[in-house]
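[AMINO ACID CHAIN]
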Amino acid sequence: MVKEFKISASSCSEIMNVKGLGKTGENYLKTWYLSKKYNRKKEFFSKFVDKGLMVEEQGIQMLSNIQGMDLSKNEQWFENDFMGGFPDVIYNGMVIDLKSSWSIFTFPFYEKELPNKDYYWQLQVYMAVTGLSKASIVYCLIDTPQPLIDQELKKLYYQSGGKAEDWTPDTYKELAVNYKFTDIPESERIKEFEVMRNDKDIELIVERVKLCREYIKNNFQ
């Protein structure tokens, strides 16, 4: 028996197409149903996700240093009848979620508004399940962990033809600097985007979850 569908904060954008579920939402539900029915988890690997998980605590500490706050990782899962989520940090009545940028070119130096709409929906879920009214996405630019640097440079080595004579220690050092950012002041490696609670959009998420449940009932059960 497959349990009743709820949307997780991290996946909320998958079902929030402006015209309904759309193909993206339908495909998400197909994957979700298979996962729950047969007790399997779809594997997903990404260097971006790996880095985010590996440097999460560093990001929390960096934000603490810059803003003079004593932040710690949230360890509680929150949910209601329709959605659930695991916020990174809850502090002083505010939800904070951290995103680790891969490079200086993916860090939102110039952005004035939240550059990724997907994260907007993620924060609305967090606010809905925690009962809070303020949230923020904080982008962090943190040194890439050495195992990931080695992995990336190994790829570059083979892509270059794997010629050892072209891959000197100086070459390695020159390329490795692209993955390290401590020469940039910490204050320039943090970018925060605040998002306020929107009860109309939270209700829209609820309605979309109901639509998902109806879709599952009509197509899979």
